Amino acid sequence: MTDQRAVREALRTQHIETPSWAYGNSGTRFKVFAQEGVPRDAYEKIDDAAVVHRYTGVAPTVALHIPWDRVTDYGDLARHARERGIGIGAINPNVFQEDEYRLGSVCNPDPAVRRKALDHLLECVDIMDVTGSADLSLWFADGTNYPGQDSIADRQERLSEALRAVYDRLGDGQRMLVEYKLFEPAFYTMDVPDWGTSYAHCVDLGPRAKVLVDTGHHAPGTNIEFIVAFLLARSRLGGFHFNSRFYADDDLMVGAADPYQLFRIMVEIVLGGGLEPAAGVAFMLDQCHNIEPKIPALIRSVLNVQEATAKALLVDAAALRGFQREGDVLSANAVLTDAFATDVRPLLAELREDMGLDPDPIAAYRRSGHFERIRAERADGAAAGWGA
Ligand code: AOS
Ligand code: ZN
Ligand code: ZN
Ligand code: ZN
Asked: On the chain, which terminus has fewer CB atoms closer than 10 Å, C or N?
Protein backbone atom coordinates (compact mmCIF):
# COMPACT_ATOMS: atom_id res chain seq x y z
CA MET A 1 0.00 0.00 0.00
CA THR A 2 1.15 3.51 -0.62
CA ASP A 3 1.42 5.97 2.24
CA GLN A 4 -1.14 8.75 1.70
CA ARG A 5 0.82 11.22 3.82
CA ALA A 6 3.92 10.71 1.69
CA VAL A 7 1.80 11.15 -1.45
CA ARG A 8 0.49 14.48 -0.18
CA GLU A 9 3.95 15.63 0.86
CA ALA A 10 5.33 14.83 -2.59
CA LEU A 11 2.48 16.71 -4.25
CA ARG A 12 3.11 19.77 -2.14
CA THR A 13 6.73 19.96 -3.25
CA GLN A 14 6.12 19.47 -6.98
CA HIS A 15 6.40 22.79 -8.80
CA ILE A 16 4.88 23.37 -12.21
CA GLU A 17 6.19 26.37 -14.14
CA THR A 18 3.91 28.30 -16.47
CA PRO A 19 5.20 30.04 -19.63
CA SER A 20 4.80 33.80 -20.06
CA TRP A 21 3.82 33.29 -23.72
CA ALA A 22 0.75 31.28 -22.74
CA TYR A 23 -0.76 34.42 -21.19
CA GLY A 24 -0.48 36.50 -24.37
CA ASN A 25 -2.47 36.26 -27.56
CA SER A 26 -1.51 33.35 -29.80
CA GLY A 27 -2.83 31.41 -32.72
CA THR A 28 -1.87 29.41 -35.74
CA ARG A 29 -0.25 30.67 -38.91
CA PHE A 30 -3.78 31.27 -40.15
CA LYS A 31 -5.08 33.55 -37.44
CA VAL A 32 -4.31 34.95 -34.02
CA PHE A 33 -7.60 35.46 -32.16
CA ALA A 34 -7.42 38.44 -29.82
CA GLN A 35 -8.90 37.86 -26.38
CA GLU A 36 -10.08 40.37 -23.81
CA GLY A 37 -8.10 41.03 -20.65
CA VAL A 38 -4.82 39.84 -22.13
CA PRO A 39 -1.62 41.23 -20.53
CA ARG A 40 -0.08 44.22 -22.25
CA ASP A 41 3.50 43.58 -21.11
CA ALA A 42 5.77 41.27 -19.15
CA TYR A 43 4.67 42.78 -15.84
CA GLU A 44 1.05 41.88 -16.48
CA LYS A 45 2.00 38.38 -17.63
CA ILE A 46 3.69 37.94 -14.26
CA ASP A 47 0.53 39.22 -12.57
CA ASP A 48 -1.45 36.51 -14.35
CA ALA A 49 1.08 33.81 -13.51
CA ALA A 50 0.79 34.87 -9.87
CA VAL A 51 -2.96 34.35 -10.11
CA VAL A 52 -2.44 30.80 -11.38
CA HIS A 53 -0.13 30.17 -8.43
CA ARG A 54 -2.59 31.74 -5.97
CA TYR A 55 -5.31 29.26 -6.94
CA THR A 56 -3.16 26.14 -7.43
CA GLY A 57 -0.41 26.63 -4.85
CA VAL A 58 2.07 24.69 -6.98
CA ALA A 59 3.00 27.09 -9.82
CA PRO A 60 5.48 29.43 -8.11
CA THR A 61 7.54 30.39 -11.17
CA VAL A 62 6.99 31.74 -14.67
CA ALA A 63 9.30 31.21 -17.65
CA LEU A 64 10.26 34.26 -19.70
CA HIS A 65 10.84 34.54 -23.41
CA ILE A 66 13.35 37.08 -24.65
CA PRO A 67 12.68 39.36 -26.53
CA TRP A 68 8.90 38.93 -26.15
CA ASP A 69 9.32 39.83 -22.47
CA ARG A 70 12.09 42.36 -22.94
CA VAL A 71 12.14 45.07 -20.24
CA THR A 72 14.67 47.73 -19.39
CA ASP A 73 15.29 46.47 -15.86
CA TYR A 74 15.14 42.72 -15.20
CA GLY A 75 15.95 43.27 -11.52
CA ASP A 76 12.79 45.32 -11.30
CA LEU A 77 10.80 42.62 -13.11
CA ALA A 78 12.11 39.98 -10.68
CA ARG A 79 11.16 42.24 -7.78
CA HIS A 80 7.68 42.63 -9.25
CA ALA A 81 7.39 38.83 -9.41
CA ARG A 82 8.54 38.48 -5.79
CA GLU A 83 6.00 41.06 -4.66
CA ARG A 84 3.33 38.97 -6.36
CA GLY A 85 4.53 35.84 -4.54
CA ILE A 86 6.27 34.10 -7.45
CA GLY A 87 9.71 33.96 -9.06
CA ILE A 88 11.11 34.05 -12.56
CA GLY A 89 11.91 30.61 -13.90
CA ALA A 90 13.61 29.51 -17.11
CA ILE A 91 14.82 32.05 -19.63
CA ASN A 92 13.91 31.13 -23.22
CA PRO A 93 16.01 32.90 -25.85
CA ASN A 94 14.57 33.54 -29.29
CA VAL A 95 16.87 32.92 -32.22
CA PHE A 96 14.19 32.25 -34.78
CA GLN A 97 12.23 35.41 -35.43
CA GLU A 98 14.54 37.62 -37.41
CA ASP A 99 15.17 37.75 -41.13
CA GLU A 100 18.85 36.93 -40.66
CA TYR A 101 17.84 33.51 -39.34
CA ARG A 102 16.39 32.32 -42.65
CA LEU A 103 19.17 29.70 -42.91
CA GLY A 104 19.45 29.12 -39.18
CA SER A 105 20.91 30.78 -36.11
CA VAL A 106 23.87 29.10 -34.42
CA CYS A 107 24.11 26.64 -37.34
CA ASN A 108 23.87 29.34 -40.04
CA PRO A 109 26.55 29.10 -42.74
CA ASP A 110 27.35 32.80 -42.21
CA PRO A 111 29.66 33.37 -39.21
CA ALA A 112 28.25 36.88 -38.65
CA VAL A 113 24.74 35.48 -38.16
CA ARG A 114 26.11 32.78 -35.85
CA ARG A 115 27.80 35.48 -33.80
CA LYS A 116 24.58 37.48 -33.52
CA ALA A 117 22.68 34.38 -32.33
CA LEU A 118 25.40 33.49 -29.84
CA ASP A 119 25.45 37.03 -28.48
CA HIS A 120 21.73 36.79 -27.82
CA LEU A 121 22.17 33.48 -25.97
CA LEU A 122 24.93 35.01 -23.86
CA GLU A 123 22.76 38.05 -23.17
CA CYS A 124 20.12 35.66 -21.88
CA VAL A 125 22.62 34.26 -19.36
CA ASP A 126 23.28 37.85 -18.24
CA ILE A 127 19.52 38.16 -17.70
CA MET A 128 19.53 34.93 -15.67
CA ASP A 129 22.18 36.44 -13.40
CA VAL A 130 19.82 39.32 -12.65
CA THR A 131 16.55 37.37 -12.36
CA GLY A 132 18.11 34.51 -10.40
CA SER A 133 16.91 32.01 -13.00
CA ALA A 134 18.54 28.58 -12.88
CA ASP A 135 17.72 27.36 -16.37
CA LEU A 136 18.42 28.52 -19.89
CA SER A 137 15.99 26.69 -22.21
CA LEU A 138 17.48 26.37 -25.67
CA TRP A 139 15.35 25.61 -28.65
CA PHE A 140 16.73 26.06 -32.15
CA ALA A 141 14.54 26.39 -35.21
CA ASP A 142 17.69 25.59 -37.20
CA GLY A 143 17.58 23.07 -39.99
CA THR A 144 17.27 22.71 -43.74
CA ASN A 145 14.37 22.28 -46.13
CA TYR A 146 16.10 20.60 -49.05
CA PRO A 147 18.67 17.84 -49.47
CA GLY A 148 21.98 19.45 -50.29
CA GLN A 149 20.99 22.84 -48.90
CA ASP A 150 23.81 22.71 -46.34
CA SER A 151 26.19 20.21 -44.81
CA ILE A 152 24.51 18.28 -42.01
CA ALA A 153 27.90 17.54 -40.45
CA ASP A 154 29.17 21.13 -40.62
CA ARG A 155 25.99 22.35 -39.00
CA GLN A 156 26.57 19.96 -36.10
CA GLU A 157 30.08 21.42 -35.70
CA ARG A 158 28.69 24.94 -35.58
CA LEU A 159 26.08 23.86 -33.05
CA SER A 160 28.76 22.31 -30.82
CA GLU A 161 30.80 25.50 -30.92
CA ALA A 162 27.89 27.70 -29.88
CA LEU A 163 26.72 25.34 -27.17
CA ARG A 164 30.25 25.20 -25.77
CA ALA A 165 30.51 28.99 -25.61
CA VAL A 166 27.19 29.23 -23.77
CA TYR A 167 28.05 26.36 -21.44
CA ASP A 168 31.34 27.98 -20.47
CA ARG A 169 29.52 31.20 -19.67
CA LEU A 170 27.08 29.56 -17.19
CA GLY A 171 27.48 30.65 -13.59
CA ASP A 172 27.20 28.59 -10.42
CA GLY A 173 23.82 26.98 -10.07
CA GLN A 174 22.91 27.63 -13.71
CA ARG A 175 22.08 24.92 -16.22
CA MET A 176 21.29 24.75 -19.89
CA LEU A 177 18.43 22.63 -21.18
CA VAL A 178 18.64 21.55 -24.80
CA GLU A 179 15.26 20.98 -26.42
CA TYR A 180 14.80 18.82 -29.50
CA LYS A 181 12.09 18.81 -32.14
CA LEU A 182 11.43 16.35 -34.93
CA PHE A 183 10.44 18.88 -37.57
CA GLU A 184 9.13 22.41 -38.03
CA PRO A 185 9.97 25.03 -39.03
CA ALA A 186 12.55 23.07 -41.03
CA PHE A 187 11.11 20.14 -42.93
CA TYR A 188 14.08 18.15 -44.26
CA THR A 189 16.54 18.23 -41.35
CA MET A 190 16.35 19.82 -37.94
CA ASP A 191 19.74 20.33 -36.32
CA VAL A 192 18.45 18.96 -32.99
CA PRO A 193 15.71 16.60 -34.17
CA ASP A 194 15.64 14.08 -31.33
CA TRP A 195 16.67 13.26 -27.78
CA GLY A 196 19.72 11.33 -28.96
CA THR A 197 21.21 14.40 -30.64
CA SER A 198 20.44 16.54 -27.63
CA TYR A 199 21.84 13.91 -25.26
CA ALA A 200 25.09 13.56 -27.23
CA HIS A 201 25.67 17.32 -27.16
CA CYS A 202 24.89 17.43 -23.44
CA VAL A 203 27.33 14.61 -22.70
CA ASP A 204 30.04 16.45 -24.67
CA LEU A 205 29.37 19.65 -22.73
CA GLY A 206 29.26 18.45 -19.14
CA PRO A 207 26.91 17.74 -16.24
CA ARG A 208 25.08 21.06 -16.33
CA ALA A 209 23.73 20.46 -19.81
CA LYS A 210 20.49 18.46 -19.78
CA VAL A 211 17.86 17.35 -22.23
CA LEU A 212 14.52 19.16 -22.35
CA VAL A 213 11.62 16.93 -23.39
CA ASP A 214 8.74 18.81 -25.04
CA THR A 215 5.94 16.26 -25.18
CA GLY A 216 4.73 17.63 -28.53
CA HIS A 217 8.03 17.20 -30.37
CA HIS A 218 8.03 13.53 -31.34
CA ALA A 219 6.84 11.37 -34.17
CA PRO A 220 3.36 9.93 -33.60
CA GLY A 221 3.57 6.76 -31.54
CA THR A 222 6.92 7.58 -29.93
CA ASN A 223 7.24 6.07 -26.46
CA ILE A 224 8.05 9.23 -24.52
CA GLU A 225 8.16 7.50 -21.15
CA PHE A 226 11.02 5.34 -22.41
CA ILE A 227 13.01 8.47 -23.25
CA VAL A 228 12.19 9.91 -19.84
CA ALA A 229 13.30 6.76 -17.99
CA PHE A 230 16.51 6.56 -20.00
CA LEU A 231 17.51 10.19 -19.47
CA LEU A 232 16.54 10.23 -15.80
CA ALA A 233 18.68 7.18 -15.06
CA ARG A 234 21.65 8.98 -16.61
CA SER A 235 20.98 12.28 -14.81
CA ARG A 236 20.34 14.02 -18.13
CA LEU A 237 16.66 14.79 -17.84
CA GLY A 238 16.58 18.53 -17.35
CA GLY A 239 12.85 18.87 -17.51
CA PHE A 240 9.70 19.03 -19.57
CA HIS A 241 7.77 21.31 -21.78
CA PHE A 242 4.38 19.77 -21.16
CA ASN A 243 1.52 20.11 -23.63
CA SER A 244 -0.88 17.87 -25.57
CA ARG A 245 -0.74 16.96 -29.20
CA PHE A 246 -3.04 15.13 -31.53
CA TYR A 247 -0.94 15.57 -34.66
CA ALA A 248 2.30 17.57 -34.39
CA ASP A 249 3.41 20.43 -32.12
CA ASP A 250 -0.18 21.29 -31.25
CA ASP A 251 0.64 22.94 -27.90
CA LEU A 252 -2.79 22.14 -26.48
CA MET A 253 -3.41 21.82 -22.76
CA VAL A 254 -1.34 19.09 -21.12
CA GLY A 255 -3.40 16.06 -20.15
CA ALA A 256 -6.18 16.94 -22.57
CA ALA A 257 -5.31 14.63 -25.45
CA ASP A 258 -3.89 11.61 -23.67
CA PRO A 259 -3.98 11.63 -19.87
CA TYR A 260 -2.77 8.01 -19.83
CA GLN A 261 0.45 9.02 -21.60
CA LEU A 262 0.99 11.81 -19.08
CA PHE A 263 0.43 9.28 -16.29
CA ARG A 264 2.94 6.84 -17.83
CA ILE A 265 5.51 9.62 -18.03
CA MET A 266 4.91 10.55 -14.39
CA VAL A 267 5.19 6.90 -13.35
CA GLU A 268 8.73 6.80 -14.76
CA ILE A 269 9.47 10.07 -12.97
CA VAL A 270 8.19 8.80 -9.64
CA LEU A 271 9.82 5.36 -9.89
CA GLY A 272 13.10 6.88 -11.08
CA GLY A 273 13.30 9.39 -8.22
CA GLY A 274 12.58 12.32 -10.54
CA LEU A 275 10.26 14.03 -8.08
CA GLU A 276 13.07 14.48 -5.56
CA PRO A 277 14.25 18.09 -5.73
CA ALA A 278 17.83 16.80 -6.03
CA ALA A 279 16.94 15.17 -9.38
CA GLY A 280 16.52 18.66 -10.81
CA VAL A 281 13.66 17.83 -13.15
CA ALA A 282 11.88 21.04 -14.14
CA PHE A 283 8.15 20.60 -14.80
CA MET A 284 7.29 23.38 -17.22
CA LEU A 285 4.33 23.98 -19.49
CA ASP A 286 4.77 25.06 -23.10
CA GLN A 287 1.30 25.75 -24.39
CA CYS A 288 -0.78 28.26 -26.26
CA HIS A 289 -4.43 28.97 -25.53
CA ASN A 290 -5.72 30.13 -28.87
CA ILE A 291 -9.46 29.74 -28.37
CA GLU A 292 -9.95 29.11 -24.64
CA PRO A 293 -9.57 31.68 -21.83
CA LYS A 294 -5.95 31.65 -20.77
CA ILE A 295 -5.85 31.84 -16.97
CA PRO A 296 -8.42 29.07 -16.38
CA ALA A 297 -6.70 26.98 -19.08
CA LEU A 298 -3.39 27.31 -17.25
CA ILE A 299 -5.02 26.45 -13.94
CA ARG A 300 -6.60 23.40 -15.62
CA SER A 301 -3.20 22.39 -17.04
CA VAL A 302 -1.44 22.66 -13.69
CA LEU A 303 -4.19 20.53 -12.15
CA ASN A 304 -3.85 17.97 -14.95
CA VAL A 305 -0.13 17.56 -14.23
CA GLN A 306 -0.90 17.33 -10.54
CA GLU A 307 -3.57 14.66 -11.10
CA ALA A 308 -1.24 12.56 -13.23
CA THR A 309 1.46 12.90 -10.59
CA ALA A 310 -0.94 11.90 -7.81
CA LYS A 311 -1.94 8.77 -9.74
CA ALA A 312 1.70 7.92 -10.38
CA LEU A 313 2.43 8.31 -6.68
CA LEU A 314 -0.37 5.82 -5.95
CA VAL A 315 1.41 3.11 -7.93
CA ASP A 316 2.25 0.36 -5.46
CA ALA A 317 5.95 0.15 -6.28
CA ALA A 318 6.70 -2.82 -4.02
CA ALA A 319 3.89 -4.89 -5.52
CA LEU A 320 4.95 -3.83 -9.00
CA ARG A 321 8.55 -4.95 -8.45
CA GLY A 322 7.31 -8.24 -7.04
CA PHE A 323 5.12 -8.98 -10.05
CA GLN A 324 7.92 -7.92 -12.39
CA ARG A 325 10.35 -10.33 -10.71
CA GLU A 326 7.82 -13.15 -10.92
CA GLY A 327 7.13 -12.39 -14.54
CA ASP A 328 3.44 -11.88 -13.74
CA VAL A 329 2.69 -9.65 -16.69
CA LEU A 330 -1.02 -9.16 -16.07
CA SER A 331 -0.68 -8.32 -12.37
CA ALA A 332 2.20 -5.92 -13.02
CA ASN A 333 0.18 -4.14 -15.66
CA ALA A 334 -2.85 -4.05 -13.33
CA VAL A 335 -0.80 -2.19 -10.70
CA LEU A 336 -0.48 0.65 -13.21
CA THR A 337 -4.03 0.55 -14.51
CA ASP A 338 -5.45 0.44 -10.96
CA ALA A 339 -3.50 3.56 -10.04
CA PHE A 340 -4.57 5.28 -13.25
CA ALA A 341 -8.22 4.41 -12.62
CA THR A 342 -8.17 5.90 -9.10
CA ASP A 343 -10.16 9.11 -8.69
CA VAL A 344 -7.55 11.37 -7.07
CA ARG A 345 -9.77 14.45 -7.01
CA PRO A 346 -10.87 13.96 -3.37
CA LEU A 347 -7.22 13.55 -2.31
CA LEU A 348 -6.23 16.70 -4.17
CA ALA A 349 -9.18 18.64 -2.76
CA GLU A 350 -8.03 17.70 0.76
CA LEU A 351 -4.47 18.63 -0.06
CA ARG A 352 -5.61 22.06 -1.22
CA GLU A 353 -7.61 22.59 1.94
CA ASP A 354 -4.48 21.70 3.95
CA MET A 355 -2.62 24.31 1.91
CA GLY A 356 -5.27 26.92 2.62
CA LEU A 357 -6.55 26.87 -0.97
CA ASP A 358 -10.00 26.45 -2.42
CA PRO A 359 -10.51 22.75 -3.22
CA ASP A 360 -11.83 23.68 -6.69
CA PRO A 361 -9.36 26.23 -8.13
CA ILE A 362 -11.19 26.85 -11.42
CA ALA A 363 -14.54 27.49 -9.75
CA ALA A 364 -12.82 29.73 -7.21
CA TYR A 365 -11.13 31.69 -9.99
CA ARG A 366 -14.42 32.14 -11.84
CA ARG A 367 -16.15 33.33 -8.67
CA SER A 368 -13.37 35.78 -7.88
CA GLY A 369 -14.34 38.31 -10.55
CA HIS A 370 -10.68 38.55 -11.55
CA PHE A 371 -11.39 38.18 -15.23
CA GLU A 372 -13.97 40.97 -15.23
CA ARG A 373 -11.42 43.17 -13.45
CA ILE A 374 -8.56 42.62 -15.91
CA ARG A 375 -10.93 42.94 -18.85
CA ALA A 376 -11.79 46.45 -17.68
CA GLU A 377 -8.28 47.41 -16.59
CA ARG A 378 -6.61 46.25 -19.77
CA ALA A 379 -9.20 47.52 -22.22
CA ASP A 380 -6.79 50.14 -23.54
CA GLY A 381 -3.34 49.45 -24.92
CA ALA A 382 -2.05 46.72 -27.16
CA ALA A 383 -2.26 43.15 -25.91
CA ALA A 384 0.96 41.19 -25.77
CA GLY A 385 1.25 38.34 -28.20
CA TRP A 386 3.65 36.51 -30.44
CA GLY A 387 6.48 38.79 -31.33
CA ALA A 388 5.33 41.46 -28.87
C1 AOS B 1 9.10 25.31 -30.14
O2 AOS B 1 8.46 24.54 -30.85
C3 AOS B 1 9.49 24.96 -28.79
O4 AOS B 1 8.52 24.16 -28.21
C5 AOS B 1 9.90 26.07 -27.82
O6 AOS B 1 10.16 25.48 -26.59
C7 AOS B 1 8.86 27.06 -27.46
O8 AOS B 1 7.60 26.81 -27.96
C9 AOS B 1 9.31 28.41 -27.76
O10 AOS B 1 10.63 28.63 -27.37
C11 AOS B 1 8.44 29.43 -27.09
O12 AOS B 1 8.97 30.55 -27.33
ZN1 ZN C 1 8.89 23.65 -26.08
ZN1 ZN D 1 7.19 23.30 -29.60
ZN1 ZN E 1 4.89 22.41 -28.30
From this structure: N
The ipTM (two decimal places) reads 0.94
Total of domains in the chain: 1
Q: How confident is the model at residue 381 (pLDDT cuts 50, 70, 90)?
A: confident
What atom in ligand 1 is closest to the CA of residue 19?
11
Centre of ligand 1 from the C-alpha of residue 171, in Å: 24
Per DSSP, the three-state class of 135 is strand
Q: Which domain holds residue 95?
A: 4-314+371-377
Total residue length of the chain: 388
Ligand having the closest approach to the CA of 184: 1
Sign, CA dihedral 182-187-189-190, equals negative
CB atoms within 10 A of CB 338: 14
Q: Whose CA is nearest to atom 8 of ligand 1?
A: 286
**Best mutation site among 101, 139, 181, 214 for ligand 1 pocket (most ligand atoms within 8 Å of CB):** 139
pLDDT in tens, 266-325: 999 999 999 999 999 999 999 999 999 999 999 999 999 999 999 999 999 999 999 999
In a domain, residue 180? The reply is yes
Ligand 3 centroid – CA 151 distance (Å): 25
**CATH number, domain with residue 216:** 3.20.20.150
Is residue 47 situated within a structural domain? yes
Question: Which residues does a 6 A CB cutoff place in the pocket of ligand 1?
Answer: 21, 65, 92, 139, 179, 181, 214, 241, 249, 286
* CA distance linking residue 42 with residue 35, whole number of Å: 17
> Is residue 345 in a domain?
no
Whole-structure pTM value: 0.97
| Widest Cα–Cα separation across the chain | 66
Give tens-digit pLDDT for 55-113.
999 999 999 999 999 999 999 999 999 999 999 999 999 999 999 999 999 999 999 99
